């Protein structure tokens, strides 16, 4: 009788050597790299938070006057120095930025609501309605914005609300053309055709289908509108039809600094740099959002 064969028992595998720990440099290289959009949006958000926190950051009341220290240079007490009445320029730049932010934000909101409704209505109705709305937009865009704003502000006054409304209406035609273009592009896609075939009502097509998919490109236009609103507000303030004393926006401070350019040139530099930096960041954000949106659609 044959004896059963016994298989050879495999030797246990040696324990795996522990992986070497990554150095600090390697760990830092593995972190996601900040994009230009993230950096510019972060700086823009930081600037907005700084303006909103002006009562906590500024050490002086922006309206407090001390003629004895008029046109003083930068110091530990007054970081940007003082103006012609001895008011702290750093505090005035912060509080002026809040007014500029309020006017620009209001104008962007007015342009978004009015322009999006305008453009979507033209895209949905088509035909004679589309032609009438778009030719109206072309006619309004042909009028010089600054000239039209000067006439409106001279007629209705230079309050914060009036500035936001006038600037928003001036930016609405460009937003309407953008909204119409985006709406027509989205209406050619399969999801919209499926919603129409399903029998969705016009309100659902507008609010649930077109608007959510148009938001990325409309956000690009909103950033462009914010930069345009700041330029218009600064231009109106520079000619004396913007925010009136004792309040001040960045445009008002730029105008006041220009009047005293030979006494202290830094007076005009700080508000000018604030306007330049904010508009540059808005343009970078708009460019990067547009590029990302185009890549996503492709």
Describe what you observe in this structure.
- It is a single chain.
- This protein has a single domain (79-297), classed as MetI-like fold.
- It starts with 23 loop residues before the first helix and ends with a helix.
- The chain is built from 11 helices and no strands.
- The mean pLDDT is 81.
- Helix 4 (89-125) runs antiparallel to helix 9.
- It has 298 residues and is mostly helical.
- The longest helix is centred in the middle third of the chain and has 37 residues, at 89-125.
- It has helices at residues 24-30, 36-52, 54-57, 89-125, 127-142, 145-156, 160-187, 190-198, 202-238, 250-259, 266-297.
Topology of this protein?
Layout lengths: L23 H7 L5 H17 L1 H4 L31 H37 L1 H16 L2 H12 L3 H28 L2 H9 L3 H37 L11 H10 L6 H32 L1
Helix pairs in contact: 2-4, 2-11, 4-5, 4-7, 4-9, 4-10, 5-7, 6-7, 7-9, 9-10, 9-11, 10-11
Beta-strand percentage range: under 5%
Q: How many individual β-strands?
A: 0
Give the fraction of residues assigned to helices: over 70%
Mean pLDDT: 81
Q: How does the major sheet shape up?
A: none
The CATH superfamily name is MetI-like
Number of helices: 11
Distance between the termini: 77 Å
The number of domains is: 1
Keywords:
mainly alpha, MetI-like fold, BP-dependent_transpt_permease, ABC transporter permease, transport, transmembrane
Structure summary:
By secondary structure, this protein is mainly α. The protein contains eleven helices and no strands.
